[in-house]
Design goal:
Layout lengths: L2 H27 L8 H15 L4 H7 L9 H6 L14 H9 L4 H8 L3 H11 L6 H5 L9 H12 L1 E6 L10 H8 L1 E3 L4 H20 L5 H32 L9 E8 L1 H11 L1 H4 L2 E9 L13 H11 L13 E8 L11 E2 L2 E2 L18 E9 L7 H18 L2
Parallel strand pairs: 1-2, 1-3, 3-4, 4-5, 5-8
Antiparallel strand pairs: 6-7
Helix pairs in contact: 2-7, 2-16, 5-6, 9-16, 10-16, 11-12, 12-13
Length: 410
């Protein structure tokens, strides 16, 4: 064997050994959190809370829809068919899709899909792993029978993260949600939003009206387009910077380890995401992000920077591990709850208050290169925004499961 070949083989062996050591080190250093069925965990807690408030199982089953095969429920309700589901069908999914396809509309399919929600949740609870118990993450002082308020206090003390909510809570069909969140979270407000929104709406209307005037010259049209875009972008940046500053102001200066769980609703969610993407100092202090009926992918009919096209484009470019990375390698849960009205407009995609379910869910983030994962989308599934659904019960269950999921990702 020639000396050159021997040297090459030695170098290759050393390189392979280095890669193996690096891989082994990564295996032990990078957190490997358990796989959690967060939707079943959340909805089981909510069912317990609603039963304690006196609601019967029939009412609960309608308000808290759950089925183990109801992935992408909006697809199953609007156009059922296994072909619309990515990947191979799950066991029993083909039969379920066929039964749904035989029904005429969203309301009847909703009734069929979620006919046994409470029983399905009971079966799911029996099959949950030990990682889905509060005792696993809070210690032996709690059990599955511990009342939800006590679980919430124990989780709050263990996580030591302050909940903040962007306010005032808007764009939500659930009555009393803002008041219920205010009891659990510190309201965060920022200045300039009303002025910026009014300016942007006025510019949008002006742009639309100029477009309808036949005698508007091409030069005038281009000027107005540029003016609207620049002012709209400036207004958006001002709002985003204001949100980041307001969130940062809630962090105590004397506790560098303090963390926040940030909650937002409706159109505030895409603004929050932009604030986190643009301010790494704030992002590093956030333990979890919670969207309740958020217009994550935009709201139909909106124009400008928060339109469906603009939000989808922003998410493609920025909702990525390398764009939302952290100084310390850890997973940040991005938790979403969606609103689904089975009696909504049959001509619109399934959702509530004009917002499709698919727009309210965090997508799977992009991933490029060898960056460590920083984003974990956690889908808690849809709820029905009915007056019978107590907002405080939703917030109680949400508080516990988000705290527990966040603890499991430390």
């Amino acid at each position: 064997m020639s000396p050159a070949l021997t040297a090459w083989m030695g170098g290759a062996w050393m390189g392979g050994a280095a890669l193996a050591v690096a891989g082994a080190a990564a295996w032990f250093v990078v957190p490997r959190p358990p796989v959690l069925d967060a939707e079943a965990w959340f909805k089981d807690l909510l069912v317990r809370r609603l039963r304690a408030s006196g609601l019967d199982d029939a009412t609960i089953g309608h308000l808290v829809p759950y089925h183990p095969l109801a992935r992408w429920p909006e697809r199953k309700l609007a156009h059922p068919g296994v072909a619309s589901m990515p990947g191979a069908p799950l066991p029993g999914e083909h039969e379920l899709e066929s039964a749904l396809a035989a029904l005429p509309d969203v309301a009847s399919r909703f009734g069929r899909l979620y006919a046994d929600s409470v029983a399905q949740l009971a079966a799911a609870r029996a099959g949950l792993s030990p990682d889905h118990t509060a005792r696993r993450w809070l210690g032996p002082q709690v059990s599955d029978d511990t009342p939800l308020p006590e679980l919430s206090r124990a989780a709050e003390q263990r996580l030591e993260a302050t909940w903040v909510v962007l306010g005032p809570v808007a764009d939500t069909p659930l009555v009393g949600l803002g008041d219920a969140l205010a009891r659990e979270a510190v309201p965060v407000t920022w200045t300039g939003t009303a002025v910026d929104d009014a300016l942007y709406v006025a510019l949008g209307l002006f742009l639309r009206d100029v477009g309808r005037v036949a005698r508007a010259t091409e030069t005038t049209w281009r000027f107005v387009q540029t003016w609207s875009f620049l002012c709209g972008a400036a207004a958006l940046h001002a709002v985003v910077d204001g949100i980041a500053a307001a969130i940062e102001a809630t962090l105590p200066d004397d506790r560098p380890s303090a963390r926040l769980v940030v909650v937002a609703t409706g159109r505030d969610v895409p603004l929050l995401l932009r604030a986190l993407a643009g301010h790494v100092a704030v992002r590093d202090r956030v333990a979890a992000v919670v969207s309740i009926g958020g217009a994550i992918l935009g709201r139909p009919g909106d124009v400008g920077p928060l339109s469906e096209a603009a939000c989808a484009d922003w998410m493609d470019h920025h909702f990525r591990h390398e764009r939302l990375d952290l100084e310390v390698v850890r997973l940040v849960p991005y938790v979403s709850v969606q609103w689904l009205d089975p009696d909504g407009d049959p001509a619109s995609p399934p959702g509530a208050a004009g917002l499709p379910v698919a727009s309210q869910r965090f997508p799977t983030p992009g991933y490029v290169g060898a960056e460590s994962p920083a984003i974990e989308p956690v889908d808690l599934g849809p709820l029905v925004p009915d007056p019978s659904l107590p907002a405080e019960a939703v917030v109680d269950a949400l508080r516990v499961v988000v705290d527990l999921v966040t603890l499991s990702r430390r």
